[in-house]
Amino acid sequence: MSDFLDTEVPAPRTAPGMETASPEAEAAVLGACLMATPVYDPVADVARVLADGDWAEPANELVWQAVVRLHGADRPTGVPAVEAELRRTGELAQAGGMVRLSQLASAACTATQAGHYASIVHGYAGLRRYQATLVRGMQGARMADPLGVPETIAAHQAELEHLMTGDAGGEDLFGRFGDHLESELDAIEREVEAAAVTGLTDLDNLVHMAPGNVVLVAGRPAMGKSALTLGVALANASTGRPTLVHSLEMGRSEVTKRILSAKARVGLHHLVQGGGAVTDDDWTRIARHLPELSQLPLWVDYAPRVSPARVRSRIKALTRETGRAPLVIIDYVQLMETDQRNSRQSPYERVTEISRELKITAEETGAVIICCAQLNRGSEHRTEKKPQVSDLRDSGALEQDASVIILLHREDAYEKESLRAGESDLIVGKNRNGPTATVTVAHQFHYSRLRDMAPDPEDR
C-alpha cells in the first residue's frame, strides 16, 4: 500500500459513550503494582496480560516501564523505588512527579483484582488499534490506485487479521515448559504426515515439510527452478492436498503448456509452436490426462503484482474452501512487492520485509510456502560452479527465515560434454529439522520436469 501506512494515525475522536480508554482501570493497575509486597505481587500477572503500547496515557507508560525494570531486577516496586528509578532516567517530570505516583497508589485495586483491570486496559488498547486500523483503511480507500484496489483491500484485510491473531494467540504462546510436555510427547508418538510432498522420492525422504515451513528453491537462470516447483505443485495436488501457485514470471498460457507437457509427456516445443506441430499422439496423451487435471485441487494466481498480504488473503480463502492450509509456491520472491510499496526501499530492505512477512504468514496460517529465488553470480566464479547458500541475492533474511534451502545445479549447463548430462543436483544447503545432503534427479526439460533417477512406470 502507499506510504500512508508509515504515518502515525491520531487516536480517533470519540463521542460520549464511545470511550477508548479507562483512566480509572489504568490507575488501579499501576496503583496495585506500586503497592506490591513480596506476598501479594501482581506485576507478573499484569505483565502477562498487557502488551507494549497498551497504556493510553504516556505518563502511565513511563511508570509501568519503570515498574517492569525494577521487577526484572528483583527490586521493590513501591512508590519510593519507582520515583528513584524515574529520577535516574530523567523521566520523573514526564511521569507526573511524586504527586502523580501518590495518586496512583491511592487508586490501587487489590493484588487479586489487578489482572482483571489489566484486561480492561488491554481491551481498550485493542479497541484503539482497531479504530486506527479502520481509519487507515479509509485513508487507503481514498488514496488507492484504481488498478490496485484488490491489493489495497488485501493489505487492509491482512492488518485486521494481524490485529485479531495478535490478541488471540499471545496467551497460548507463553507458559511453563512442563505444562504442555505431555501433549507434545503424545504428538511425537504419532507418525506425522508431511504437510506437502515434492513427488521426488529421495527429496521427500530427506525433507519433511511441516506446517509453517518456508522452503527456498534457489539457482541461477535456466537451472530448472520453475520446472521443479511446477512439478512439486502437480505432485502435491495429485495427492488431494490443496495447492496454490503464484506465477509472477509466467502467464496463463506458458504455465498451462508446461503443466500439460510435464503431465502428458508431450514435447514442450510442440505445444509452444502449436498447430500441426502437435501430433495425433500428443493429443491422445493430453486427452488421457485432461479429466485428472481438470479436477486437481490446484489454483494459480497469474497476477504480476503480488504482495505478502495478497498471499495471505489467498491462503485464507483456500483454507476456508478446502478445510486445509495449502502448499503455496511463489515464482519468484524477488519479483514480489511489499504491502506498503515504499519506493524509497532498497532491494535489500524490500526482500528482507517480504521474507519476514512470508515467514509470519506461514506460521500463522499453517501453510507451507515454497519460494523460488535467484542467486548472484558468485557460483560462476568457482571452479566447480556449485552454488552456496551465501549466493542468495538481495537479502540475508531469505537464508535466515527459510526452514529449508534447496540449491539447483547442473554440471552439463557449464560442461557440454559432461558425463552427467541430463542430471540435476538438488543441494539441500539448510534443513532445520533434518540433515543436509545432495539429491540427484533427472531433468527432462523437453517435458519441463524433473524426475527421480529410478525409471517411472508411467514412462514405460
Automatic annotation (TrEMBL):
It catalyses: ATP + H2O = ADP + phosphate + H(+). Residues 189-459 form the SF4 helicase domain. Pfam families: DnaB, DnaB_C. Keywords: ATP-binding, DNA replication, DNA-binding, Helicase, Hydrolase, Isomerase, Nucleotide-binding. Its EC number is 5.6.2.3. InterPro entries: DNA_heli_DnaB-like_N_sf, DNA_helicase_DnaB-like_C, DNA_helicase_DnaB-like_N, DNA_helicase_N/primase_C, P-loop_NTPase. Residues 1-21 are annotated as: Disordered. It comes from the Bacteria. Belongs to the helicase family. DnaB subfamily. This is DNA 5'-3' helicase.
